Every structure is written in C-alpha cells, then in structure tokens.
Amino acid sequence: MQVTSSIREPLITGGKTIRDVSEDISRQVEGKPTKLWWGAMMISLTLLAFGFYCLCTLLWEGVGVWGLNKTVGWAWDITNFVWWVGIGHAGTLISAILLLFRQKWRMSINRAAEAMTIFAVICAATFPFAHMGRLWLGFYWVFPLPNTWGSLWANFNSPLLWDVFAISTYFSVSLVFWYMGLIPDFAVIRDRAVRQGHKLRANIYNALSFGWDGAARTWSRYESVALILAGLSTPLVLSVHTIVSMDFATSVVPGWHATIFPPYFVAGAIFSGFAMVLTLLIITRKVFKLEDYITIYHIELMNIVIIITGSIVGIAYITEFFIAWYGQVPAEQYAFFNRMQGPYWWAYWSMMTCNVISPQLFWFKKIRTNIVATFILSIIVNIGMWFERFVIIVTSIHRDYVPSSWSMFHPTMYDMGEYVFTFGLFFSAFLLFAKFFPVINMAEVKSIIKSSSEKKH
C-alpha cells in the first residue's frame, strides 16, 4: 500500500520575491490616500462626530439619558463593553498562541489582527468611563484617595475592578507586542524613503524604528522578546474574558450564576474576534491588492476556527439549559424559559440563528472558500454575538423575583449614539493604521517566502 501526502497550498501566491514583498506592502504607505480611503474616512468621522455629540450630552446630563430603569440598570453599555472586549481576542490569539505553535499561516494576518485588538480594547474602555456619568469626578470614585465626600475606597472584591486590572494588562502587553513587530518594517520604509529622497518620511520612520540596524544580534534579541511576549500574552487570552465573565458568574442573578461562563465567554470571544478579522481583511486585501498574501487558504483556515469556536458556543447554550433543568431551581428555569418565549424572544432566536446555525455552513468547502459568503457570514456572526451579550444581560434582569418590578428596556438615541461613537473611533483608527503602517508583517512574510511561495516558471 502506498500513501502519498497531499501538497499543502502555498501561503504566498504569485511567485513573489523578497523585493516584491517590500514593494507591494510599502506601496500603500508611500502613496497618497485614494478616493476610496477618503470616502471611508469621511463616513467614519461622521459616525464619530454624531457619537461624540451623544457622549458629550451623556456626560452633561448624566446616565439618565440612557434607557435604563430601576430594574434594568445594565443594558447597552455593558453589552457593548463585553462585545468590544471579545472582538479584541483574535489578535492576541493569532499573535501569541499561533506563534508558539509555529503556525506560519498567521504571518500574513497577525499585523491587522493585533491592530484590531488595540482599537477594540480602546473602544471597550469608553463604556466604563461613560457609565461613571460624571467623568471628571472619576478620580475620586475610582482611586482609593481620601476626598471631600469621605473616604471612598475601591472595592477589590468587586469583579468590576478585576476588569480594570485584566484589561489594562491585556492592552499593555498587546500594544508592546504589536509595536515591536512593526519596528523592522518601519526600518524598511525608512530605508526606502532615504533612497527615494524623502527626508521627512525617512526621519519619521527612523524615529518609529528606534534606529533599527538589522544586525544579527538585533534580530536575535527581537526574536527572544517576541517569544517572551507571546508567553505572557497566551494566558491573557484565556484570563481576560474569563474575568469579564465573572462580572456575571459571581452574582446570584438567575441566568448569570453559572460556572460554565468562563470557558463559554472565552470561546465566544475568539469566535467573534475571528469573524471581525475576516470582515476587515477581506476588504483590506481587495482595496490594497494583497490577494497574493492574504489568500483563500488563509480565509479557509480562519473559517475552520470559526466552525470550532461556534460549535463550542452552541454546546454552551445547550449546557446552560441542561443545568437549569437539572438544578430544579424555579427562578433559573423561568429565566431560560423567558429568554425563549418572553418579550425578548426575537433577540434570543436571532442569537441562536446567527451563532449556532450560520457557522455550520462553513462545513461546506465551497462556502468557506467563497469570499462573498465568508464576508456576509462574518458580519452575521458578530451580529449574533452582540445579541448573545444583550440576551444574557437584559433578559436576565428585566424580570426579577418581584413581578411588580418587571419592566422593559428601550434604548434611546444616546444608547445607540455611544455605540456609533465606538464604531467611528474603531474604523477611523483602523483606516489610519492601514494607510500609514504596513498592514502585513513584511519581516515575517519574507522569512517564509522561499518555502511557501509559488515558483515562477
């Protein structure tokens, strides 16, 4: 019996050389912004301006302009906070865990995914600040300092404070990891600017590259630091959303008090994060003509990750219902019955359709290798993950133990406005990144160009 191993698809197509990599990826940094880029930036800035108006109104009037009431004290703000934190998970996973496992297919997508992580965490951070209401008094309320209202000390037993430490650590490590990977590429752009006679650009990128000289010792230190940061980032991928889930799991609210929340939230975060990476990269590869670097093979592998994590999320949904049935706690059972058939049934079934049913379409190779289908499904997944957070938060608290206090949550313009603000902030930041920073890691792609690129004939 003879077995012939299948030949792996090349990671870099088009017979690219090392020089081609520098030319293709540096082109969008060195060229003038296109009309398409300006159009996208104007849309993002419009969203940002409208959201900023709503945010300023919120800070002036207080959180009463939101649709919150005495029963639903958390709604869109915490829903969007958890959603944005989840979006940022794929970047660190691609950068850290896949680096430790020596997965070379990550090299074309890690730069954009890392940038997405940074911007998503910044967007998430706006919601806790906005939730303070009087932001300028936040220093008195957050930090353990004596003040004119008496000694207000931070409650270190609160999972909300755990969020602060977890997410700030996650942001710091991710930012260092992302910027460190940019340094060799900044040096390439600097050297090209010197040859082209662009002194200003050369000086700017020389400062950004910290005088990178490309010596063997420099590369050795660079690779050592990359491994150390990957080792530090790997537990953060698991711990950050675990701690976010404890905002709910450590409570006694029916529908929240569940030990399955930590792994369930981590899988959901990776699920939504990879969907957002696909949404951004499908557009980026088309606009910047990077189809030879971000190939159908890359997209197919990311879709396989979505299948796995989406299936885990589906199992978590089933497990929640089993626990509610097996526990025989009437309030817990009613919470899940209310999700399915209560006033917010439409949100629950939207969540189930988007998160459980739609990812299963990727089992078909024709769909998971189809650009249009992947783009549509990636957006559907992120819509479903938003509904998941909404269902968990709002449907669990809008009907508590006392029927006389039952109420409905109706978002106002200012609830929606702050969400729009974060979209404007995210896409404006990503567009600036894509224009002025190399969107693909040139140094890493060059390291695999001989082993993975198609040969010219």
Could you please describe the fold and organization of this structure?
By secondary structure, the chain is an all-alpha fold. It has a single domain (18-135, 156-448), classed as Formate dehydrogenase/DMSO reductase fold, CATH 1.20.1630.10. It contains 18 helices and two strands. The chain has helices at residues 18-30, 35-61, 76-87, 89-100, 110-131, 138-142, 159-196, 199-208, 216-249, 261-287, 296-327, 330-341, 345-357, 365-368, 371-397, 413-436, 442-447, 449-452; strands at 145-147, 150-152. A two-stranded antiparallel sheet has the order 1-2. A hairpin with a 2-residue loop joins strand 1 (145-147) and strand 2. Helix 2 packs antiparallel against helix 16, helix 3 (76-87) crosses helix 10 and helix 9 packs across helix 10. The longest helix is centred in the middle third of the chain and has 38 residues, at 159-196. The chain is globular, with a radius of gyration of 24 Å. The relative contact order is 0.18.
